Amino acid sequence: MVFLPVLCAGAEFFGIQFHYSLYPLAAFYLLLALPQLFLCIGGTIRISPKAKFGWGILAALLVLSDRGYWVHAFFVNNHLLLGFYFTLSVIGIIKYRENRQLFWLVIAAMALATTSLQRNEMAVFAFVPTALLMSLEDLDRKHYAAFLGTFLAIAFGWQFYRVAKLGVGGDIHGWGVAQVG
C-alpha cells in the first residue's frame, strides 16, 4: 500500500487502467489502521487495551458513517489516501517508540513521503510525525538518518522524475504524485 501512488503513476505512464480498483482497498486499510493507531497509543496515559480498541472501533464507525468516506472510497481522488498514509506514518513512529526497530521508521518514512507527495500542502504535514520522532529522548542518530534518508530519497526522487518527465518549464505545482500522468 505504501507504493500505491507510485504504482498508479507508473500505470498511467504506460497507459494501464487497473489502479482504480485499489482505492476501495485503501479505504478498507484505513478502517483497519484506526483501531491499530489507538492500540499503539501508550506512554503515561493508562488506558486498558480493550478501551483503546473500543475507541479505535468507534473512530472507524465514525469514518464509516461519513458520506465523504464512501465517495472517496470509490472515486479516484487522493483524500482517502492522505488519511491512510498519514495514519500509517504516525503508527510507524509510535511502534518505533515502543520497540526501537528500524523497520517501523522505514515504514513511517515511506508513508510520510507518500503523504507529502499527494498534494501541494501536504509537505507541511511531514513535520508532525517528524516532530513526534524528534521528541524521543534516546533517539538513535543512525535510525534518524535512515528515516530522513528514506523520506528524502522518495520525495526528491519523485521530484527529479517529474522534472525529467515534464521538463524544467513543465506545469509542475507543488509535490503532487498525481500530477504526472
Characterise the protein shown here.
69% of the residues lie in helices and 0% in strands. It has eight helices and no strands. Residues 174-181 have low confidence and may be disordered. It starts with a helix and ends in a 15-residue tail after the last helix. Helix 2 (22-40) runs antiparallel to helix 3 (49-64) and helix 2 (22-40) crosses helix 4. It is mostly helical and 181 residues long.
Q: Class by helix and strand content?
A: mainly alpha
Terminal-residue CA separation: 19 Å
Main sheet record: none
Percentage beta strand: under 5%
What helical percentage do the residues reach? Answer: 55-70%
Tally the helices: 8
Helices, strands, pairings?
Blueprint: H1 4-13, H2 22-40, H3 49-64, H4 67-74, H5 79-99, H6 102-118, H7 127-134, H8 141-166
Helix pairs in contact: 2-3, 2-4, 2-5, 5-6, 5-7, 6-8
Any descriptors?
181 residues, mainly alpha, 0% strand, flat, disordered C terminus
Please outline what is shown here:
The protein is mainly alpha-helical. The chain is 69% helix and 0% strand.
